Amino acid sequence: MDAPLDPIRIAIVGGGAAGIFAAISAKEENPDTQVSVFERSNRFLAKVKVSGGGRCNVTHACFEPKELVTRYPRGSRELLGPFYRWQPQDTVDWFASKGVALKTEDDGRMFPTTDSSQTIIDCLLDSARKCGVELHAKTGIDRAQVTDTGGFLLSTTANENIEFDRLILATGGGRDSVGHKIAVSMGHTTTTLAPSLFTFHIKDSRIEGLQGLSVPNAVATCPFLKLSQSGPLLITHWGMSGPAILKLSAWGARALADCNYKFNLQINWTGTLDLESAKQALLQAKQRNGAKQIGTNSLLGLPRRLWDRFLETESIDPKSKLSQVSNNQLHSIASLCVAGNYEVDGKSMNKEEFVTCGGISLREVDFKKMESKQVPNLYFAGETLDIDGVTGGFNFQAAWTTGHIAGSSAAV
Ligand SMILES: Cc1cc2nc3c(=O)[nH]c(=O)nc-3n(C[C@H](O)[C@H](O)[C@H](O)COP(=O)(O)OP(=O)(O)OC[C@H]3O[C@@H](n4cnc5c(N)ncnc54)[C@H](O)[C@@H]3O)c2cc1C
């Protein structure tokens, strides 16, 4: 009779979404593996807890991989194959199989029906424990080196050295990442890191005091990057936020860091009108309803307070009849509404969701297995890679997908 084979020993560094999902996926793929997750803090899934304002935006109702990849400023090409293997529908089905139902909001974001991120944490940690994953909190990994047999010797913060056959780095994004240092020590490179998903600082009398006001569909453009994004835009007490701004910050993350977050921003508050159509619409209103006061109704579909502010900016009395407003003044108002220029002077992190742009260079990773092309048996998952998505559940989806593939590949 053959002697039983020793189980494959898998170490996962990082107990976030990617690491925990990789651990469960490894055990689900091959229950005979020995899977250990090392988390340096005292809590697993800390970011899941605070995610989505405490509700956890688990994924996005976008079930077509080719469409899904367009939501990733970095990693879109590389994620296409992985999304054919594990996409939002698989995430939804997996959580449903564990008794956790997800619901879809109007904008496509998916949350647990409980509206509590704790539901997701309980589900993941219960699943991990049930399938026999060994969870080591307060155990950071300082170093790792490749052994003569092609395995890995890990040094913990408690000065313990432990040997494994496979290593999955899932240490997340951020500067001074030990995961990046370990990968670099093994010959990998990292791309330049920069924050993504941030809001813009703008001090401008046209929006001052209007905090809380939002338009449902604005277009925000960075002329120097020839980059535009549309969607809801929110005026804050420090400047502008909302999906249109966050998406722009993601797509322009590196270039905006390079200019130290000082740049010109153009806003089309109407979302759809160009300058000529806006001018024509105002001229027509003047012709047809010349006796009406310009301030009575917000024209061009703008929120009333914003319309009033633009009239004030142009020194137009809201009580003026449309017929009394000069065509030049109407042109100026049209410009403010569809091509207002604002000077951005800094950024703030978005408290709801933020990520790091940059990480392990994607050229060095085989996305069929999430395995290093340089070091056999070394795998990557989650934000430690040079992958990030726009806001809306895409970042967790990348963590589930890469975690699933890394874990199931490492287990065989
Ligand atoms: C406030 C906030 C809200 C968010 N909300 C959403 C949302 O609703 N939807 C969405 O899709 N995305 C959201 N995101 C983004 C999402 O949280 C991340 O993209 C995701 O958590 C990445 O998962 P990860 O496992 O790769 O990294 P992380 O979640 O960062 O996990 C990495 C883990 O590794 C540990 N670690 C690091 N180094 C070591 C080491 N040397 N040894 C041991 N452990 C180590 C860290 O302590 C950490 O626990 C949010 C982010 C933030 C900051």
Total strands: 21
Q: In what range is the share of β-strand residues?
A: 15-25%
CATH superfamily of the largest domain: FAD/NAD(P)-binding domain
* Sheet with most strands: strand arrangement: 12-15-14-13-16-17
Task: Tell me what the structure shows.
This protein is an alpha+beta fold and 412 residues long. The protein folds into 2 domains: 9-193 and 353-410, 3-Layer(bba) Sandwich (FAD/NAD(P)-binding domain), CATH 3.50.50; 198-349, no CATH class. 33% of the residues lie in helices and 24% in strands. It is built from 13 helices and 21 strands. The chain has helices spanning 17-29, 46-54, 65-68, 76-85, 88-97, 117-130, 178-185, 243-251, 253-258, 275-288, 304-313, 327-338, 394-410, and strands at 9-13, 34-38, 59-60, 102-104, 109-112, 134-136, 141-146, 152-156, 161-164, 166-169, 194-196, 198-202, 214-222, 227-235, 239-241, 262-268, 340-349, 355-357, 365-366, 371-372, 378-380. The strands form 6 sheets. A 6-stranded antiparallel β-barrel has the order 12-15-14-13-16-17. Strands 6-2-1-10-21 form a 5-stranded parallel sheet, covered by helices on one side. The longest helix is centred in the last third of the chain and has 17 residues, at 394-410. The protein is elongated and about 95 Å long. It starts with 8 loop residues before the first strand and ends with a helix. 47% of the residues are buried. It binds flavin-adenine dinucleotide. Residues 13-19, 38-41, 46-47, 50-52, 56-57, 140-141, 170-172, 178-179, 352-355, 382-384, 393-396, 399 line the site of flavin-adenine dinucleotide. The site of flavin-adenine dinucleotide has 37 residues, from helix 1, helix 2, helix 7 and helix 13.
